[in-house]
Design goal:
Strand order of the largest sheet: 1-2-3-4-6-8-10
Shape: globular
Order of helices and strands: EEEHEEHHEEHEEHHHEHHHHHHHHHH
Number of domains: 2
CATH superfamily of the largest domain: 2-enoyl-CoA Hydratase, Chain A, domain 1
CATH architecture of the largest domain: Alpha-Beta Complex
Number of strands: 10
């Protein structure tokens, strides 16, 4: 059930325990409220968020939306992958419904006609990135850890990742998607995955100022003016800036086996230690997931947003049966033996025709 939420300040409503909604000073506040589960998003949460955002889009008394996660550890650590695993194993359709509705929510955020402020405190992983990358004002803190880590569980970076990752300058987004590494605030700003940095102890001050904000100009400009008084848009010495020449070299290579081989054998701009560490990390990931991710991101670089989501859904519809996700979840989340049996087990077993088969008929589907 969806509670009625007053547009008057001081009245809070609860969509359900997992999503909290409140309007104060013409700002709709949405809170992902599963802190014990790092605010991992479920289908019911997707539906609650979509419903409330639509209601506020139609409400002239709501000028803007603030999106955050409860607790200090995470904004959102991704989709509730365990429930999707259980759905597939039991022959249910929850996993199919989840992706269709999650992508629709993320796309709606990209197109939302009122400004959305995303407070990206703590972990922002996978599905959490899908919620924030369409927001107008994305705020990180010193606790922020951003990643599209799907390849670690045999999956690919979805929720719009095929759109926003390849649009990061150079090959940085390809690197982030194919390896699944986490980045912190300075790199998030450098990559354009965040807009503002704010110390976490100032979040309460931001809330107070939002409650007292005088609406003068457009809501977006009013919010930008407020953030400009509290936050900064750059941080010194982002680690990825120093690694950029090496990343741009290695991750422009034609395929994943070539990338790993070159990382092991070639030194670019004093990056040898990083290159060996990256190669070792990639050898723990699903070879198929990395290869499909690389192809998806390179295609996504030339596709409009809606087509990127359509491509991801096209892959999703095959992945539970043909991909490595179920085995990855088993090894890393269910049995926790951390020894996934990838198919193929190594990069050398990858067949280009198998990778390309996941993209067959996409153009027909999309059209």
């Amino acid at each position: 059930m969806t509670a009625q939420v007053s547009t008057e300040a001081s009245h809070a409503g609860t969509l359900q325990d997992e999503v909290l909604a409140e309007v104060r000073n013409h700002i709709g506040h949405l809170t992902l409220n599963r802190p014990a589960g790092l605010n991992a998003i479920t289908l019911s949460m997707v539906r609650s968020l979509a419903s409330q955002l639509q209601a506020w889009a139609d409400d002239p008394q709501v000028h803007a939306v603030v999106l955050r996660g409860a607790g200090e550890k995470a904004f959102c650590a991704g989709g509730d992958i365990r429930s999707l695993y259980d759905s597939f194993k039991s022959g249910d359709t929850l996993h199919q419904d989840f992706f269709i509705e999650e992508y629709a929510l993320d796309l709606a955020i990209h197109h939302y006609r009122k400004p959305i402020v995303a407070l990206m405190d703590g972990f922002v992983l996978g599905g959490g990135m899908g919620l924030v990358q369409g927001a107008d004002l994305r705020v990180v803190t010193e606790r922020s850890r951003l990643a599209m880590p799907e390849v670690a569980i045999g999956y690919f970076p979805d929720v719009g990742g095929s759109y926003f990752l390849p649009r990061i300058p150079g090959e940085l987004g390809i690197y982030l998607g194919v390896t699944g590494v986490q980045i912190r605030a300075a790199d998030a700003l450098y990559c354009g995955l965040a807009d503002w940095y704010l110390d976490s102890h100032k979040l309460a001050d931001l809330d107070e100022k939002l409650d007292r904000l005088q609406w003068h100009d457009s809501p977006l400009k009013d919010l930008q003016g407020l953030l400009a008084k509290l936050a900064v848009q750059q941080l010194p010495d982002p680690p990825l800036a120093a690694l950029r020449p090496a990343i741009d070299h290695f991750f422009a290579l034609p395929d994943v086996p070539s990338i790993v081989e070159q990382l092991q054998q070639v030194t670019v701009a004093d990056s040898h230690e990083w290159a060996l560490t990256t190669a070792s990390l990639m050898q723990t990931r699903s070879p198929l997931a990395m290869a499909v991710t690389l192809e998806m991101l390179r295609r996504g670089r030339h596709l409009p947003l809606e087509q990127c989501f359509a491509l991801e859904l096209h892959l999703d519809r095959q992945w539970f049966e043909r991909g490595d996700l179920i085995e990855g979840v088993r090894a890393l989340i269910i049995d926790k033996d951390k020894s996934p049996l990838w198919n193929p087990p190594t990069l050398h077993g990858l067949a280009l025709s198998h990778v390309e088969s996941f993209f067959h008929h996409f153009e027909k589907v999309a059209n």
